[in-house]
Design a protein that fits this description.
Low-confidence stretches: none
Helix content: 40-55%
Keywords: Cytoplasm, Lipid biosynthesis, Lipid metabolism, NAD, NADP, Nucleotide-binding, Oxidoreductase, Phospholipid biosynthesis, Phospholipid metabolism
CATH architecture of the largest domain: 3-Layer(aba) Sandwich
Distance between the termini: 50 Å
CATH class of the largest domain: Alpha Beta
Bound molecules: nicotinamide-adenine-dinucleotide, SN-glycerol-3-phosphate
Number of domains: 2
Order of helices and strands: EHEHEHEHEHEHEHEHHHHHHHH
Main location: cytoplasm
Strand content: 5-15%
Shape: globular
CATH superfamily of the largest domain: NAD(P)-binding Rossmann-like Domain
EC number: 1.1.1.94
Structural class: alpha/beta
Radius of gyration: 19 Å
Enzyme class: oxidoreductase
Protein name: Glycerol-3-phosphate dehydrogenase [NAD(P)+]
Largest sheet: 8 strands, mixed
Mean pLDDT: 98
Number of strands: 8
Number of helices: 15
Length: 333
């Protein structure tokens, strides 16, 4: 039987632990809060991060990360993207030599512009073959009640990706493998920025035409940057690309979408973060994406508008006018 450790007992880490347990994988879930771990073990609930959701029996929660990591075949990391480097650094010697390590995170590190799998590789000195990414249309609260969904397990070593896919597959969770780590990971991070943008237009009271426009042109931005970074063009129309964009931009469960809607209704960034709760990665990742795009000479006007709104407090209506009055261009380039 495969043994897994999940680091991070927030909404997604807890849900992913349930996915592993339901697939027959033995799973230890690490969270820093002892009360959260105690409640998961005693009541099969994580009321702080996943209120109202029942968890399966097979999860052993602990506040001791070294205990969670001991003897596992798979390590899955679900921590806030901007904090993960500092949190996992001290655990480097506790990661078993042969274990594959998967990033479940959807962000790009500010300053370094590193994708999360690169942060894991850097901090834990992992080979590319041992490092995986899981990303797709995966809203935690839907999966926690076993609503059917699919995801992508990306890895350069197909046998490692297949191992994690087998360790997560169940009657409600269908993993596909993909060798395009760069593309899958960029999709997961960049879609959060686009979801903030769609949330803003919702908050302004605009309808489905606007939503569809931002999603579609957002996908064009993600694809342009991804291809410039060496990703496979087909990844962007797949589950991690279009699939996750639809889920995140359409659902009120998305923290990024919700945060954008608060901004569109006139809240400040601080108020929006407070009201949203949980980790809305698009806020900081918008800065990294904008800088990455500049480095690679890629045009990302929606991302630019999100950065201007969130981080420079520029008026939304003026930014919209600027977006719509840019020089016209052909859709196909
Ligand atoms: N929630 C989802 O539906 C979902 C789905 C797919 C991917 N993701 C991604 O997973 C990642 C985690 O998201 P989440 O939804 O679980 O976030 P969350 O806000 O629900 O949980 C964050 C977790 O990180 C822990 N944490 C924060 N700071 C810490 C520190 N200094 N030391 C130790 N632990 C710390 C918190 O205690 C909590 O357990 C993000 O990158 C997100 O984009 C989320
Ligand atoms: O709640 P969000 O906005 O972090 O989105 C959650 C997942 O990434 C959706 O796939």
């Amino acid at each position: 039987m495969t043994r897994a450790a999940v680091l991070g007992a927030g909404a997604w880490g807890t849900t992913f632990a349930a996915v592993l347990a339901d697939a027959g994988t033995e799973v230890a879930l690490w969270g820093r809060d002892e009360d959260v771990a105690a409640q998961i073990n005693a009541e099969r609930r994580n009321e702080r991060f996943l209120p109202g959701m029942d968890l399966p029996e097979g999860i052993h929660a602990t506040a001791d990360a070294r205990e969670a990591l001991s003897g596992v075949d798979v390590v899955a990391v679900a921590l806030p993207a901007q904090k993960v480097r500092g949190i996992i650094g001290p655990l480097a010697d506790a990661v078993p030599d042969g274990a594959v390590v998967a990033s479940l995170m959807k962000g790009i590190e500010v300053g370094t512009h590193a994708r999360m799998s690169d942060v894991l590789r850097d901090v834990w000195e992992l080979s590319a073959e041992r490092t995986l990414v899981v990303s797709g249309p995966n809203l935690a609260r839907e999966i926690a009640v076993k609503q059917p969904t699919a995801t992508v397990v990306a890895g350069t070593d197909s046998s490692a990706a297949e191992m994690l896919a087998a360790a997560t597959a169940s009657s409600y969770f269908r993993p596909y493998t993909n060798p395009d780590v760069v593309g899958v990971e960029l999709c997961g991070a960049f879609k959060n920025v686009i979801a903030v943008g769609v949330g803003v237009t919702d908050g302004l009271g605009f309808g489905h035409n606007t939503t569809a426009t931002v999603i579609t042109r957002g996908l064009a931005e993600i694809t342009r940057l991804g291809v410039a970074l060496g990703a496979h063009p087909d990844t962007f129309s797949g589950l991690a690309g279009m699939g996750d964009l639809i889920a995140t931009c359409a659902s009120p469960l998305s923290r990024n979408h919700t945060l954008g809607a608060h901004i569109g209704r006139g809240l400040s960034l601080e108020e929006a973060i407070e009201r949203t709760g949980g980790t809305a990665e698009g806020v900081q990742t918008s800065l990294s994406i904008q800088e990455l795009a500049r480095e690679h000479d890629v045009d990302v006007p929606i991302c630019d508008a999100v950065v201007a709104m969130l981080h420079r407090g520029e008026p939304i209506k003026e930014l919209l006018t600027q977006l719509l009055s840019r020089p016209r261009k052909a859709e196909l380039t």
